[in-house]
């Protein structure tokens, strides 16, 4: 009994250690040595640049830019601004103003770029984490580096981009238009998709990763959190970073360092100075300093290779890596050992065919029941708490409580199923089924998803445990626990990382992966006679967690409800309406939409949508306001051959922030230039094969007008639909929209708090 308790404690400690080792537990203060990174010194800058939303075109955006310039100049750096129009593949046009500085190196070699962005997301985000944290990490890191007074071998280029949130426009202008871009050998990019948690290293490379990984390990960051599966998951997410442009357009490799926990703060006004996890910022600094020292001296021209490595972090070992070439040999050896152990066990009469076959029942039952139960329960939660649908992040404020609840639900189900098959001498036979299925998984990932091939490491631990179970009539339970511990150290963080990274809609993964892991713990749990008691305890804890989640399901000042409201004036038919994206209306939106608004989900003019697919949900007629309409000026309209060539301007008559231009998908454009930027052609035509009618969105700074030059077939009846938007619904004197209550915030990812004029432009 004592050994069982010790072993259970050992497994719990392994899980705890797997999370504890991922990031620092304390921060560096202002008394830290001058040549060391100090989180508290970095926080001084963060407090200044996250006082207000600072999206492109806002007054605060200019103030933040000037603050960063001043701080870099105070470090003795010469700073330049790169400013030009950019239209990226996201269909967003803007005029980013990049902040660039350079520390000359001693050799004429490739340069190291330190990268982040200073714009916040339109239009309410304070941007403390995304990406104020990256900006201040670089400022403080460069200060500490320069304090040593040494000259680096490689040039160090600091690039604080603009318009990242709009479509990576700042990175586009640097990579494709700045002369320094051709000198870049490596990029370290600091980002955020939440306000806390460990920072994950996400590699960007067009070729193999072996040399990058060798260099990363050689730099020896204290808390590396990375694995070769994470980048595959990262590519599934609906976002990119500036580093993507460096890789795609410049064939420049690099490392992203991004934290994703507390995802509900992302792009909201709650992404503030107070809510940024201090240990997370310390983690970013713990990456930057060793990598800055290493790569400022390393040969950055020798990082490309065709060889790929499997890699993963693990407490005590930090990073473990090996070549892709080992994947199949390791898998084949594991299969051979497995078959040999079965033959050996049957001969020794420690394995029994019937018991091995019966072992598939609790294992598969645990996987299926856990996955299905969690999926069904989450759908029930969405029905019971419809307000969750208004959190477009897909991760609720009580999301961590749900993860814990479903982990214990999985444990309860698995303990219950295995209790039904308990015998005093069948533990070794019960382990065969989990190993068999894990080998199938490893074979599949070896063929299709090589980055996940480190899954074979826990299998080797299970094979060793199976050998011990066969060899010893009374195996040492503590030894078996030690053999199971590496599996927990490697895989336990995935239980939280996956639903945080992919959203709570993927909570069923907690059940499936958890049950798969439970199977590899059978060398220990198989000896527990009263697994039903552990089942009841686990299910009880799960119920308590669900009750706790219920009491946290509402909104308050700390965990505020995202809501939305826009005013839309249609100049074509001289009508106006209030519109919202909310699924559940609250007292603030009901002031304008009432208790019985019109369902707008199927309306033909429901144009705007976010990357999460949100569209207007309800509308209601609104009073007409006399807004200044944009002027349409034509400078050229000429037919040459089969095409009509047109130059025109859309000139705003009020202070606006955004202009969207749409045209029917059937419209053909031979050429199209926007504010001097030529739209990329596909099969000799611009905007070819569009999925929808949107052409592009123009985010305005410096009050620049929109100038268009395009050519169309001379017989085409071209018609544009324009949406001109200002972000001043709550401050415009023509409207009386009250401030939100303390438990409400502007909904992110959408055009919100906006006054919109829509107008057709017919070119007859």
Task: Please tell me about this protein's structure.
This protein is α+β, with helices and mostly antiparallel strands. It folds into three domains: 242 residues, no CATH class; 277 residues, Zn peptidases (Aminopeptidase, 3-Layer(aba) Sandwich); 207 residues, no CATH class. Helix content is 40%, strand content 21%. It has 21 helices and 28 strands. The strands form six sheets. The chain has a ten-stranded mixed β-sheet. Strands 1-4-6-5-7-9-8 form a seven-stranded mixed β-sheet, with helices on both faces. Strand 2 and strand 3 form a beta hairpin. The longest helix has 26 residues. The protein is globular and about 90 Å long. The mean pLDDT is 94.
Map the helices and strands.
Layout: H1 2-20, H2 39-49, H3 59-74, E1 79-83, E2 86-87, E3 92-94, E4 97-103, E5 111-117, H4 128-146, E6 156-161, H5 164-167, H6 169-177, E7 184-192, E8 196-204, H7 210-219, H8 230-236, H9 242-250, E9 254-261, H10 278-295, E10 309-314, E11 318-323, H11 327-347, H12 353-358, H13 360-384, H14 399-419, H15 427-448, H16 456-471, H17 477-502, H18 508-520, H19 522-525, H20 531-551, E12 561-563, E13 566-570, E14 575-580, H21 587-593, E15 598-599, E16 618-621, E17 631-640, E18 643-651, E19 658-663, E20 671-674, E21 677-678, E22 681-682, E23 685-686, E24 694-699, E25 706-713, E26 718-726, E27 744-746, E28 754-763
Parallel strand pairs: 3-24, 5-6, 5-7, 7-9, 12-27, 13-28
Antiparallel strand pairs: 1-4, 2-3, 4-6, 8-9, 10-11, 13-14, 14-16, 15-16, 17-18, 18-25, 19-24, 19-26, 20-21, 20-25, 22-23, 26-28
């Amino acid at each position: 009994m004592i050994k069982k308790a010790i072993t259970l404690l050992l497994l719990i400690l392994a899980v705890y250690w797997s999370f504890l080792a991922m990031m620092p537990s304390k921060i560096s203060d202002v008394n830290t040595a001058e040549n060391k990174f100090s989180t508290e010194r970095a926080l001084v800058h963060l407090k200044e640049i996250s006082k207000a939303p600072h999206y492109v075109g806002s007054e605060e955006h200019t103030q933040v830019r000037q603050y960063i310039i001043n701080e870099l100049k105070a470090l003795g750096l010469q700073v330049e601004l790169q400013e030009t129009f950019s239209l990226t593949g996201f269909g967003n046009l803007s005029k980013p103003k990049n902040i660039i500085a350079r520390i000359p190196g001693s050799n004429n070699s490739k340069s190291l770029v330190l990268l982040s962005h200073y714009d916040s997301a339109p239009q309410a985000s304070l941007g403390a984490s995304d990406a104020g944290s990256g900006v201040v990490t670089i400022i403080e890191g460069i200060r500490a580096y320069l304090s040593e007074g040494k000259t680096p071998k490689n040039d160090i280029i600091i690039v604080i981009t603009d318009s990242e949130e709009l479509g990576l426009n700042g990175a586009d202008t640097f990579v494709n238009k700045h002369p320094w871009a051709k000198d870049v050998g490596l990029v370290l990019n600091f980002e955020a998709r939440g306000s806390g948690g460990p920072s994950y290293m996400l590699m960007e490379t067009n070729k193999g990763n072996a040399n990058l990984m060798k260099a990363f390990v050689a730099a020896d960051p204290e808390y590396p959190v990375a694995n070769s599966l994470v980048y595959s998951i990262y590519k599934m997410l609906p976002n990119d970073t500036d580093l993507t442009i460096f890789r795609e357009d410049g064939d420049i490799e690099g490392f992203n360092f991004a934290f994703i926990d507390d995802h509900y703060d992302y792009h909201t006004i709650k992404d503030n100075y107070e809510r940024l996890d201090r240990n997370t910022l310390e983690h970013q600094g713990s990456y930057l300093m060793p990598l800055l020292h290493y790569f400022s001296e390393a040969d950055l021209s020798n990082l490309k290779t065709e060889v790929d490595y499997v890699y993963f972090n693990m407490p005590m070992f930090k990073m473990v890596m090996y070549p892709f070439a080992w994947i199949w040999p390791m898998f084949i050896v594991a299969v051979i050992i497995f078959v040999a152990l079965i033959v050996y066990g049957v001969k020794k009469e420690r394995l029994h065919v019937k018991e091995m076959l019966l072992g598939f029942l609790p294992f598969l039952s645990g996987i299926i029941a856990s996955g299905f139960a969690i999926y069904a329960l989450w759908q029930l939660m969405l029905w019971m708490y419809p307000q969750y649908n208004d959190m477009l992040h897909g991760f609720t404020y009580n999301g961590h409580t749900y993860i814990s609840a479903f982990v214990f639900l999985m444990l309860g189900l698995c303990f219950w199923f295995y209790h039904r098959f308990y015998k005093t001498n069948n533990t070794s036979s019960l382990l065969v089924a989990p190993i068999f299925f894990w080998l199938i998984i490893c074979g599949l990932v070896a063929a299709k998803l090589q980055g996940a091939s480190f899954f074979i490491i826990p299998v080797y631990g299970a094979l060793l445990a199976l050998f011990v179970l066969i060899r010893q009539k009374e195996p040492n339970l503590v030894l078996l626990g030690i053999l199971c511990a590496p599996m927990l150290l490697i895989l336990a963080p995935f239980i939280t990382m996956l639903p945080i990274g992919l959203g709570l809609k993927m909570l069923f993964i907690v059940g499936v992966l958890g049950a798969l892991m439970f199977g590899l713990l059978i060398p220990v749990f198989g000896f527990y006679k009263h697994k039903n008691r552990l089942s009841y305890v686990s299910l009880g804890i799960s119920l308590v967690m669900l009750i706790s989640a219920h009491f946290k399901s509402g909104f308050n000042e700390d965990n505020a409800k995202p809501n939305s409201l826009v005013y839309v004036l249609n100049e074509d038919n001289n009508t106006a309406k209030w519109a919202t994206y909310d699924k559940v209306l609250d007292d603030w939106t009901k002031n304008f939409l009432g208790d019985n608004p019109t369902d707008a989900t199927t309306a033909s003019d429901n144009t705007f949508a976010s990357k999460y697919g949100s569209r207007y949900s309800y509308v209601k007629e609104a009073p007409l306001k006399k807004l200044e309409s944009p002027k349409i000026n034509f400078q050229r309209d000429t037919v040459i051959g089969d095409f009509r060539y047109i130059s025109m301007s859309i000139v705003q008559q009020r202070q606006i922030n955004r202009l969207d231009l749409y045209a029917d998908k059937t419209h053909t454009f031979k050429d199209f230039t926007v504010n001097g930027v030529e739209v990329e052609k596909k099969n000799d035509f611009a905007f070819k094969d569009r999925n929808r009618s949107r052409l592009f969105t123009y985010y305005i700074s410096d009050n620049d007008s929109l100038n268009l030059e395009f050519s169309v077939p001379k017989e085409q009846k071209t018609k544009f639909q324009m949406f001109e938007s200002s972000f001043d619904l709550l401050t415009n004197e023509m409207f009386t929209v009250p401030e939100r209550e303390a438990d409400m915030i502007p909904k992110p990812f959408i055009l919100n708090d906006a006054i919109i004029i829509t107008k057709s432009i017919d070119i007859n």
